[in-house]
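Teaching assistant's notes for section 4

Start the section by putting this record on the projector. Ask students to predict, before seeing the second block, whether Polysaccharide deacetylase family sporulation protein PdaB will look compact or extended. Collect guesses on the board.
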Amino acid sequence: MLRLKRTLLFSAITLVFTAATIFVTGTPVTKANTDVKPKAIYKVETDKKLVALTFDISWGNKVPEPVLEVLKKQQVKKATFFLSGPWTLRHPEIAKQIKDMGYEIGNHGNLHKDFSNYPDSWIREQVQLSEKSIHQVTGVKTKLIRTPNGDFNPRVIGCLNGMGYKVIQWNTDSLDWKNPGVQNIVTRVTKRVVPGDIILMHASDSSKQIVEALPQILDNLRKQGYQFVTVSELLSNASVSSKVQ
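Reveal the predicted structure now:
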């Protein structure tokens, strides 16, 4: 009898909890939606030879404009730039040039610190500050974000998704910021690239060899049959292949 009472009590509590959840969220509790995990986007699954060239900028004014000149000379009309808030305010003319050239602009945060070391309130504040700076200078309301240092965990991604952002990582890393040599940068990108790839490069002054490496990368990728698209265009072409760290 006691066991029956306990069972009935547990069932009643479960029903109350479920009803409350539906009332608050409008979504019934199911195993499917409780098991959903936040994910970052590394590439997309596609048979099309499409790649997204992405450039992070958080420091300096010596490299960004030469990178833009290479893209213009090579007639690359599609790329995605992730800009930090402080850099955008310090170099508004370059940020506007990126926008005027038709390139996609994403958010790269405000302070260049690992998001996973801070609470959600700090993350939201930092992203909003950067978002405001980018919008003030370029008029763009960012919807894509690449976290500083590419740092995140499921909690961070969940927080950013809750702000309406898609978290963009990369599948091919040029390692250009390490300045390993022009040919090493070219080889890393051109040998690792796959259809649907998101390629990480930098247009910050810390990347001292990207301007020389970039023309070779672009020529090689074109010879392999690749077309350049923005991250958003890439996402619209296929289902997303994602993973969580």
